[in-house]
C-alpha cells in the first residue's frame, strides 16, 4: 500500500514537472514583439488636411495597438513579454511630457500576469488619452524647429529600437510626411544631405525630369551615410505626404529613404502614403502581419 502511494506521488510530481517545463518551452517558442512608434511632431501636424493629420496619426497608432493586443491574445498574457512605446525626437519642453512618455511605454516583461491582463484591458484608453495630450502639447509650440529624424537614426535608433535576441521581433513605425528637416541639422557633402525640404534643390531637380531615377543613381544622391547595422530591425514609414502640387515627391522621398535605410542594412522596409484611415489601416495591418 505504502509503495503504491509513493509510486502515485512520484508520478504526480513528474506530471507537474513536465507541465511546468512545457509552459517554459512554449514561452520560448513565441516571438516577442518590440514595437517602437517614432513620431514626427514638426509642423506637419498643423497643416490643413481633411481629416487632420493628428486624427490620421492617432487612428493609425490605435490600429497598431490593436495589432499589439492581438499578438498578446494569440500567445496568452502568461507567455507575452511584448513591448510597445512611443518616441519623439527631439524632446518637447513641457512639464507633462515625462509622464505622458512613461504612460506610452509598456513593457509586459516587467509585469506580473495579473498586471499584464489589466494592461491588455486598459491599453486602448491609456494610448488614446495620452496621444491626445501629446499632440495637443505639440501643437502649442511657439516655433516648429522640425523633427530631427536624421540624428535619431544616427545616435539613438540602435539603443531605442533594437533588442538583440533571437526570439524578439523589432519593428519601428515612423510617422512622418517624408521630408527630413531640422533647424539645427543641415549638412551636405557632394550629393548627400542630412535634410530634404519641399524647396530643397536636391528634390526640385527631379520633379520634372522623366529620367530622374537614373540621374539619382548616377549622381549618387541620398542622405548622408551613417555607419549602422540595422539588419535586425523591420521598418514601416507611414503618412508620407508630398505637397499637393508635387505628387512625384512621394516617389522621390521614398527613393531617398529607401537608399539610406538599405545602406544601414535594413532588409525589410515598407512605405505607406498618407490617406484616409479607413483605407490605410487595413494596409498597415497587412504590412505588420508580413514583417
Explain how this protein is built.
This protein is α/β, with parallel strands linked by helices and 291 residues long. It has one domain (33-290). It contains nine helices and nine strands. The protein has helices at residues 2-29, 53-75, 97-103, 113-138, 149-161, 201-207, 212-218, 249-263, 277-290, and strands at 32-39, 83-88, 105-107, 168-175, 188-189, 192-193, 222-223, 234-240, 269-273. The strands form two sheets. The chain has a six-stranded mixed sheet with strand order 3-2-1-4-8-9, sandwiched between helices. Helix 2 (53-75) runs parallel beside helix 9. It is globular, with a radius of gyration of 23 Å. The termini are far apart.
Secondary structure layout plus pairing:
Elements: H1 2-29, E1 32-39, H2 53-75, E2 83-88, H3 97-103, E3 105-107, H4 113-138, H5 149-161, E4 168-175, E5 188-189, E6 192-193, H6 201-207, H7 212-218, E7 222-223, E8 234-240, H8 249-263, E9 269-273, H9 277-290
Parallel strand pairs: 1-2, 1-4, 4-8, 6-7, 8-9
Antiparallel strand pairs: 2-3, 5-6
Report a brief summary of the structure.
With 291 residues, the chain is of the alpha/beta class. Helix content is 48%, strand content 15%. Helix 2 runs antiparallel to helix 4, helix 2 (53-75) runs parallel beside helix 9 (277-290) and helix 3 (97-103) runs antiparallel to helix 4 (113-138).
Count of domains: 1
- Through-space gap between termini: 59 Å
Oligomer description:
single chain
Q: Provide the structure class.
A: alpha/beta
Order of helices and strands: HEHEHEHHEEEHHEEHEH
Mean pLDDT: 89
* Number of E-type strands: 9
β-strand amount: 5-15%
